[in-house]
Amino acid sequence: MQALVYLGKENMEYRELDDPRPGPGEAVVRVAACGICGSDMHGYHGYDPRRIPPMIMGHEFAGVVETGPMTGKRVTVNPLLTCGRCNACISGAPQLCEEQRNIGLPPHAGAFADKVVVREANLVPIPDEMDFVTAALSEPVAVAYHAVRIATRLSDRPLSARRIAVLGGGAIGLATALVALSQGARQVFLGETNANRRATARSANGDIVAYEPGGADEPAIASVDLVFDAVGAQATREAAFRMTRRGGTIVHLGLLPGGDGVDVRRLTLAEIAFVGSYCYSTIDFRETVALLASGGLGPLNWVETRKMSDGAAAFAALDRGLADAAKLVLVN
Questions:
Q1: Three-state secondary-structure class, residue 202
Q2: Which residues form the Enoyl reductase (ER) domain (predicted)?
């Protein structure tokens, strides 16, 4: 098979490899589409010690099962690998499993390839009419779906009655805004430094007010009920605490290291709920597939596709800020 192999910092190569072989309880999936995640870019830059070259990254994917009981089925794949035995797994929160790991992290080869081996239990069938690029969005959109569900659970008012802001216009930030709107939010402010991404967000849904941080459209101090920080940098955490009203909520999705920007005094005096959101539950993932299949997020004009064979150039384009789309998906 052909695969896009990570060879070290900012070094990817499309090369020939042996076909993978499934073990007990596993299946081979022929990959049709696989999205580039921000964590893949983190590894590309050499910042993730878990990504040890040479290796195949990629965990946002869909394709056709080639072996086992589900041979011929069109599927997307939940990439979380968990123990299935602990209290978190049994209670429906496998993302909190202490043994949780991912497809696309050693020793589990990822899906930037023609084929990938996955657990049969992680296969999620998709409708015949659902295209593979849309299905490959299930993983990142499930992250957003889970965050919105957490925010809804913490509130005593519906999303339609809350003033909402999202910080970050990448795939997770934009998906969070779109999921919130699909679940009743009337308008979402979205802060993004890249002008082209702001334009992309506006074109995705007319109820998104995409603004430049520090610009005229940025929400005023203490004016927002609910903030989603999809970046997790010092600047966005500071912005979140600045714009959240007394009694409001901040949902933190960003995975950048460090904790600078968290205003503990304001958190206390203003009774702000500051909560983390990580990945998704199994139910979140399946409900996200259904949401995408129904067209509930509107036109997916924020997604760009490129050939898997051109994957090295796609990573380089993202690195240099030359990709305007919120999400790049590699297709075979």
A1: helix
A2: 8-330
- Residue 50 has a pLDDT of 86
252 part of the active site: no
Confidence of residue 322 (pLDDT cuts 50, 70, 90): confident
CATH of 2-137+300-331, one of 3.30.70.2740, 3.90.180.10, 3.40.1160.10, 3.30.420.10: 3.90.180.10
Q: What is the mean pLDDT of the chain?
A: 96
Q: Is 42 labeled as catalytic in the residue annotation?
A: yes
Q: Pick the residue with more confidence: 321 or 175? A: 175
Question: How far, in Å, CA of 257 to CA of 232, rounded?
Answer: 8
DSSP string, 50-62: T--SSB----EEE
Q: How far is residue 99 from each of residues 16, 102, 200, 291, measured CA to CA in Å?
A: 32, 10, 37, 29
Of the residues 42, 155, 182, 223, only one is catalytic, namely: 42
Q: What percentage of residues in the chain have a pLDDT greater than 90?
A: 93
Largest Cα–Cα separation, the chain:
59
Q: HEC states along 263-311? A: CHHHHHHCCCEEEECCCCCHHHHHHHHHHHHCCCCCCCCCEEEEEHHHH
**Does position 156 have pLDDT exceeding 90, yes or no?**
no
